[in-house]
C-alpha cells in the first residue's frame, strides 16, 4: 500500500471514529447505551454479512471462535466499556482513556510478541497522549469509570494485535461482519441484564442509527481491519490520537460545543506524536530497519 493511499484511508477512518462520539451522544437521547450499540453492531454485522455472502466464510470451529473473540474485544469490549464508563466520567474523559490504545499496543506487542520499537516511537506515543489530554483540557478524575474506560483501551489493544496475528486467515470484510455480529449480540445481552432498554423512533433517531450502522460500523471497521492487516499495528494505532481531535471538532459542528485554545495546542502535540511514531529516520537508519523489520 503506498503512503498516500495509507494516509487517506487512515484519515477517513479516524474521522469517522471521531464523529461517532457526538453522533452517539445524540443517539443516547433516544436509547439506552448498550441497547443502542447492540442494535448498531447487529444491524451492521448482519448487513455486511449479506453483502459479502459470496466471499469465503470462516472455516471450522477455530476460525469462528477467533472471529468471535475479536468481536468480544473490538465491538463489545471497547464500546461496552467506553459507554458504561460514562456512568461515572464524561464522554471526553472516556475517549481520552480509550485512545491510550497505541501505548498499550506497543507495551503488549513488546511483551507478548517480542516486537521491538525505537525510543523515538515510545516518545511519539507519549507525546501523542499528552496531546489528547490537552485537547480536553487535562480535566480527568481517577475513579471507577476510569478503570472501566482503561479496560476498554486494553480490549482495543488486544483486538488490534489479534487482528494483525489472525487477520491473514480471513477476508477482512467477512471478519468485520462476523465480529460485529458477535459483539452486538453480547451488547444486547448486557443491555437485557443491566438496563431498562428502550428506543424512541423518530426521524432523528433513525438517522443516527443509519449513520452508526453504515459509516460508523461497516465503513469504519472494514477500513480499520484492512489497515491493520496491511500495516504495522503500532504505527497504525498511533493515528487513533486523531480520534478525540476529530470528536471535538465534530461536536462543535453538530452540538455547538465551544473549542478552547488548548484544542489547537493539543492538535499540534498529536501531529508531532504521529510524526515521531511513523518517521523512518535517515536512509541509513531505514536500511537497518529493513534488515531488522521489528525494530532495533
Automatic annotation (TrEMBL):
Its main location: membrane. Keywords: Membrane, Transmembrane, Transmembrane helix. Pfam families: EamA. The chain crosses the membrane at residues 30-52, 64-89, 95-115, 122-138, 144-163, 175-194, 206-226, 238-255, 261-279. Residues 5-136, 144-278 form the EamA domain. It is a multi-pass membrane protein. The keyword Magnesium does not apply. It is found in: Endomembrane system. Belongs to the EamA transporter family. This is DMT family transporter.
Amino acid at each position: 500500500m503506498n503512503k498516500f493511499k495509507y494516509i487517506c484511508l487512515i484519515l477517513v477512518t479516524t474521522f469517522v471514529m471521531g464523529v461517532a462520539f457526538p453522533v452517539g451522544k445524540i443517539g443516547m437521547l433516544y436509547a439506552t447505551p448498550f441497547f443502542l450499540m447492540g442494535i448498531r453492531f447487529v444491524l451492521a454485522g448482519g448487513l455486511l454479512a449479506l453483502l459479502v455472502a459470496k466471499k469465503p466464510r470462516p472455516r471450522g470451529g477455530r476460525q469462528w471462535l477467533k472471529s468471535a473473540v475479536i468481536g468480544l474485544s473490538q465491538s463489545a469490549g471497547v464500546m461496552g466499556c467506553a459507554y458504561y464508563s460514562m456512568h461515572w466520567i464524561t464522554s471526553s474523559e472516556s475517549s481520552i482513556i480509550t485512545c491510550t490504545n497505541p501505548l498499550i499496543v506497543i507495551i503488549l506487542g513488546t511483551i507478548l510478541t517480542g516486537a521491538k520499537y525505537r525510543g523515538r516511537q515510545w516518545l511519539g506515543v507519549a507525546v501523542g497522549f499528552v496531546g489528547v489530554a490537552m485537547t480536553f483540557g487535562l480535566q480527568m478524575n481517577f475513579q471507577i469509570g476510569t478503570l472501566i474506560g482503561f479496560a476498554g483501551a486494553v480490549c482495543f489493544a488486544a483486538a488490534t494485535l489479534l487482528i494483525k496475528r489472525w487477520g491473514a486467515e480471513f477476508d477482512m470484510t467477512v471478519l468485520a461482519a462476523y465480529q460485529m455480529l458477535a459483539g452486538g449480540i453480547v451488547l444486547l445481552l448486557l443491555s437485557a441484564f443491566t438496563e431498562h432498554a428502550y428506543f424512541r423512533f423518530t426521524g432523528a433517531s433513525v438517522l443516527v442509527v443509519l449513520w452508526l450502522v453504515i459509516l460508523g460500523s461497516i465503513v469504519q471497521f472494514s477500513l480499520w481491519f484492512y489497515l491493520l492487516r496491511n500495516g504495522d499495528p503500532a504505527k497504525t494505532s498511533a493515528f487513533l490520537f486523531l480520534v478525540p481531535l476529530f470528536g471535538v471538532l465534530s461536536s462543535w459542528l453538530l452540538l455547538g460545543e465551544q473549542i478552547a485554545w488548548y484544542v489547537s495546542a493539543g492538535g499540534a502535540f498529536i501531529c508531532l506524536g504521529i510524526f515521531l511514531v511513523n518517521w523512518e529516520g535517515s536512509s541509513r537508519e531505514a536500511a537497518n530497519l529493513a534488515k531488522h523489520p521489528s525494530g532495533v
